[in-house]
């Protein structure tokens, strides 16, 4: 349910716009939107649109880049670019036609190709660079603090390029997020929370009479969940059959113990074994300590830090790492039937983890066969 202060008539001058290069600037008006972004997932922008053109050419829209923007009093607050994966023509009113659109990052293209092959004597950066370049993706960056070993051989077996990327990054303890720039977006691969620096400060104010001109966090709560507190991985290598390829890692911030065991651990030496075990534990505990909140600050984005202040619990007034955000907004004046509704509003709901915790993705389920694998 939307906060009360967000659904009143909004005097802040909010405006949502959509730029489609192959269409006139005013061809599509934004009626509502929902943007979902999360670490190590493809963001998804869902748009409800209106137009006086009842026959927009699908070829001018589908598989093309668009730019969605959030404005306040003529100032750009946030923009999101991506490729149109789905475009739908809906009902027609007396003078307007409704359309629906789904927008994803360019990385979505990697979901379309399924492959089987071997990479030899390459590290994770080299493998990812190859996969991305094959799909024409040039806007990517690495923000890695840890050493990632060269793999003697690494097998992609009957899985999409995207599934392969998800599997490799999770094994190597790497998460990714997207940075939005002027008309383009960059996928950033990181293995440490210390690489994050962009900070957005917002005060806590749960008052229903809060001034809409002020950007605030209107709700914030913390939770803890029972998760695995120790991990043990075991593997075997024919090159050294007597090697005790077994490693364990224990969390230090809990009382009770819940062990996770896996074989094979998919490592071939001691350095890799220790690292993979640590990454596995941190991935299983990535949501052990969570914060949940609600805000009207459109600048919040995954991969940045929220500096919360003015909260009555002093220890909560600190920096938090944004890991999951759902943004929603509505601009009723863009539609005929909705024009009598209250003014434009925006809200987001977010999840955070402590500032210095490195969030790591869970390993996806993967069918292990009898073929050789890395």
From TrEMBL:
Signal peptide: none annotated. InterPro entries: T6SS_RhsGE_Vgr_subset, T6SS_Vgr_RhsGE, T6SS_VgrG/RHS. Coiled coil: none annotated. Pfam families: Phage_GPD. This is Rhs element Vgr protein. It comes from Pasteurella bettyae CCUG 2042.
């Amino acid at each position: 349910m939307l906060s009360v202060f967000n659904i009143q008539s909004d005097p802040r001058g909010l405006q949502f716009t959509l730029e489609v290069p192959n269409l006139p600037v005013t061809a599509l008006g934004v009626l509502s939107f929902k943007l979902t972004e999360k670490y190590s997932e493809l963001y998804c922008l869902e748009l409800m649109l209106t137009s006086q053109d009842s026959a927009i050419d699908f070829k001018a829209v589908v598989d093309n880049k668009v730019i969605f923007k959030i404005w306040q009093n003529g100032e750009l607050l946030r923009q999101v670019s991506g490729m149109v994966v789905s475009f739908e023509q809906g009902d027609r009113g007396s003078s307007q036609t409704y359309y629906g659109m789904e927008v994803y990052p360019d990385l979505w293209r990697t979901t379309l190709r399924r492959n089987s092959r071997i990479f030899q004597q390459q590290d994770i950066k080299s493998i990812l660079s190859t996969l991305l370049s094959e799909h024409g993706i040039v806007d990517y960056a690495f923000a890695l603090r840890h050493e990632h070993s060269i793999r003697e051989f690494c097998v992609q077996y009957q899985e999409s390029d995207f599934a392969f990327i998800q599997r490799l990054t999770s094994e190597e303890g790497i998460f990714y997020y997207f940075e939005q720039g002027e008309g383009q977006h960059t996928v950033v691969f990181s293995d440490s929370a210390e690489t994050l620096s962009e900070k957005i400060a917002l005060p806590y104010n749960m008052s229903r009479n809060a001034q809409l001109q002020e950007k605030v966090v209107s709700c914030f709560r913390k939770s803890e969940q029972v998760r695995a507190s120790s991990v043990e991985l075991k593997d075997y290598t024919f090159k050294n059959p007597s090697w005790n390829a077994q490693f364990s890692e224990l969390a230090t911030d809990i009382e009770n113990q819940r062990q996770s065991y896996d074989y094979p651990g998919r490592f071939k030496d001691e350095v890799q074994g220790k690292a993979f075990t640590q990454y596995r534990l941190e991935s299983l505990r990535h949501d052990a300590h969570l914060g949940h909140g609600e805000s009207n600050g459109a600048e919040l984005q995954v991969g940045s830090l929220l500096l919360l202040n003015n909260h009555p619990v002093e220890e909560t007034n600190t920096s938090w790492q944004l890991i999951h955000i759902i943004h929603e907004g509505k601009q009723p004046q863009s539609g005929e039937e909705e024009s009598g509704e209250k003014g434009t509003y925006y809200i987001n709901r977010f999840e955070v983890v402590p500032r210095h915790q490195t969030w790591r993705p869970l390993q996806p389920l993967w069918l292990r066969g009898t073929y050789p694998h890395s």
